[in-house]
Design goal:
mainly beta, Methylamine Dehydrogenase, Chain H, 4-stranded antiparallel β-sheet, repeat, WD40_rpt, WD40_repeat_dom_sf
Length: about 400
Amino acid sequence: MAGPAGLALCGHELVVRGGSRLLATSTSSSDDDSLFIYDCSAAEKEAREHKGEDAQPAGEGSDTALAAAFSTSGSYFALTDDSKRLILFRTKPWQCLSVRTVVRRCTALTFTASEEKVLVADKSGDVYSFSVLEPHGSGKLELGHLSMLLDVSRYPSRLLLGSGSEVTRAGQSHSSPAHPLPLSTCRFVSRIFVVPDHPELLLSSSGDRTLRLWQYRSGRELHCCHLPSLQEPAEPWSNKRFAASRITYWRQEDCVALLCDGLPVVCLFQLDVPRRQLVYQQQLTFQHRVWDAAFEEARGLWVLQDCREAPLVLCRPVGGQWQSLPESAVSKRVCAHLRENWAMLEGSAGTDSGFSSLYKATCDNMTTYLKKKEERLQQQLEKKRRRGPPRGSNGQTKKMKAGRAPRSCSS
């Protein structure tokens, strides 16, 4: 099972993952020889020695890395793989701290603000926490959810969970209630992003091909960008279904970059904070498929693409227009490392982030599911009445309230 390649940046630390391997290096000119390579398949022996929460051994998988993230300070890095392993690293210097098993294959992960825990979300909709301070400790169930989780983001004191057709706000505790935010989208929410320095603002993307800006606390929509309207009708992907696979932000310029799964384009927006709106700036088009993109505060936007000759491209605004920059000493060094280890990226060609299958899970399907669930509940209540309903103090049969009929999404 091959998965799409991924890129992560924090400070000067740059990580590229592909297949079962991770390559970490530095963009600092003073760290010319820094290179760390890790292969998840080498973690097999360690994973067998450390059981998961249910004392189950690691699952049989392909060792492909599925999700990864830096801690806020960049001191830690974590990834999960297809063999249901959570691997924790220290980054200064790079060192593997632990290999632990997770209950199910994961879709997203993040660190708490204190960097004391790693929070791991899976397809069943559960969120588990794993201690960073006790790197061999077992996972703890923190939150249960209704449907598959596609993304997880951190608010100062809460978690935001992106799933089917909603974003859920929850405390970082299994006992804390989870509350859906009223985000009106009838497609799955593919990515959510809390804007740094402006935590009252939330960005979300979904399978309806929109990028939306929300007021976090009230759930009020502030602005909506319909992505197909930004493309030329003649472009081959103008009528294609797609969802964002990455939302990344450049604090220096209040710039938002959006990468859509399977498309060779990156859309750039200016976040106008006073007016609470997104201003479309430019579309960067590439000749090769773009796997991932991330901002480095000191340099600009790094783009990871399916091109052995130039796997990483650095872009930034020049004279008011975004463009790719000529290769610098740093980009030449990083690209040389990737070319030497190109085998880790070859399996990513032609793969997507798994959103294509989710278009079947429309709101109509969810409405049908809830309707059938309601019918089953009614049948159970009817069976209880037939067996002999309980009597009230006045000798009259107690009436049982039927649940509310499910709402359907507006078209």
